[in-house]
Amino acid sequence: MKAAVLHEYDEHFTRDEIVRYEDVADPRIDTPSDIIIRIGGAGVCRTDLHVVEGIWRNIAGIQLPYIMGHENAGWVEEVGKAVTSVKPGDAVICHPLVTSGHCLACRRGDDMHAAESRFPGINADGGYAQYLRSGERALIKLPKTLAPKDVAPYTDAGLTAYRAAKKASRHLLPGQKAIVIGAGGLGHIGIQVLRALCAADIIVVDRSSEALALARHCGADHVVLADEGMMSQVKDLTGGKGAEAVIDFVGEGNAVAQGLEMTRDGGFYYIVGYGGKVEIPTIDMITSEKTIVGNLVGTYAELVELMELADRGKVTLTTREYRLEHANQALKDLHHGHIHGRAVLIP
């Protein structure tokens, strides 16, 4: 099969050829529950940029050469002998983690903390290819209204945004304030989820006017350009007290400190983006009673819920399509901030 393969890290993202489009061996059925997916779409994620930069080499045990791509959807091509829930030809979306289902975390539905798991595109070959090996337990059948290329980024970007917004929606009352920091690939999904699940006023902060226009389209009540006057505008919009919930899809630079400042006393700060540090004096934690919540992708059940919203048209993805052989261009465009929404590779 054809695949876009990473052969060496590029810490500063300076090479012309980041991945190499080449022939590789087809994936094979190894266990009775394995399934081979014919890829219909593979999302290009900022985590992929971090993989290229070598950030994940000691975290996930990546061995080069390696195929990225952890946001995958397509059609069932081949099934192991124990598979009964899907058949060849079925359109499916893949939960990013392939788990056995036997450990206690799996039985509780907490897939991301499974004792044993395989994460295609992170610690195993992923979907920047024509075919992918996944597992029966990871697959969700797609309704006829949804095509694989249109939903692939939901498996990480969408699911992560859904998990954080769902947590926030559980305590947001009508008229309360929710601030979303970053209206890009994850943020534009999180805005729509908040709009679908609660009646809070949604305030979106971003440094890009194009991203803020997308935020408006996705249901934001107010948008704020991240400039010198940002904190003053946010203060005015929240009555000087901050928001009951802040969802930070940036998580680096000064976004973390500003996000905590935007969170009102007794409020919740949800951290999704990463790369920075959360630094707050313990006395401030005590006196403000703010809650800081981390978010790691999401569960299988949450991906089912997100597909239900997508099927109903409550959440839609803004995507830009690239052929698989143009993976280098997609990665460069993402690195340089030229993509609003999500990029998708199509074999």
Automatic annotation (TrEMBL):
Keywords: Metal-binding, Oxidoreductase, Zinc. GO terms for molecular function: alcohol dehydrogenase (NAD+) activity; zinc ion binding. It holds the Pfam family ADH_zinc_N. Residues 14-345 form the Enoyl reductase (ER) domain. CDD domains: arabinose_DH_like. The keyword Zinc applies. Its EC number is 1.1.1.1. Its cofactor is Zn(2+). PANTHER family: ALCOHOL DEHYDROGENASE 1-RELATED, VACUOLAR PROTEIN SORTING-ASSOCIATED PROTEIN 11. Belongs to the zinc-containing alcohol dehydrogenase family. This is alcohol dehydrogenase.
